[in-house]
Amino acid sequence: MNREIPIVLSGWLMLSVWSVAQGDTGQDAPAADSAEPPAVTIKAPAAPEERTLSFVSPPEMSPVPVKDVLAMLQREAYKLTQYSAPKDAAGKSGASDISGLNVTTGTDGMTFAYVRGTREGNDERATRSTGKIAWIVKEEGTQVAIVMSPPGAVKVEEGKAGMFGKIEPLDKSERLAADMLRVYNHLKGSIQRSVLVQGDADVEYEEKAIYANFERILGKYVPAQNDPVIKAFDPNRGSNFYKLRRGDTVQPVQVTIYPYRDKSKAVFEFFYSYYVVGDGTNTYSEQDVQSLKEKLAAIARD
Fold it and tell me: Which of 87, 117, 167, 236 is most deeply buried (CB count within 10 A of its CB)?
């Protein structure tokens, strides 16, 4: 027959179990007033660990600008939170409702301001519950790393609705803390970048025949008004743009033909887009770039 001494709780969570099987030792179980049995300490659940987002650009390319990383993380936070940004719309009384979540990012971290209240001119009546995910920005070579610490406690600054009344927070502090933790645990993202790729091919044909090859095989690229991609090309190289297809996307390739040793030289340029991902990877492929350059050279010689 087994006998168990119940769980003992004091300060740290202590679990003490003493069990003696009578007959195994030939002795009776210890008396109730005997020395306390050995104790086992069970630690409290560990706090969330530090997280690192690492944005690594391809070799020999410039790193992602820190300001672009911070802006992207701000956008991702709004996607992850359960609270909306303030509408800041004026009501019938003329006061603007500023209730909602404001997320700001800087090189020292991400700040959350959960607000309930109104603003009329310079007069703001609101209760603010604030918290922060602190981080350190590290830059080395082509890498930008965001080393994040778990969010701290929520601080509440109460606002008054009038002489005696007060404004309730946007939500309970524990729910706001859980919201920040959700953002912290799932925060990630990627940044799209592009690099100008140049190539050329020596061709036996004259200029008109080469342009005709590109138009026949790729088709003319007709830019929209104020197309930002077209503006990024060198205007001195002319305005002959054709449709370069990469998967499901179509982008312009600029083609310029020059006389070269009784032949022609076709020079082509295009922007190769790729993503730098927060897990330390990127989608740049040198093999893909070379394949596109070979395709364009083959079209010029077709």
Answer: 117
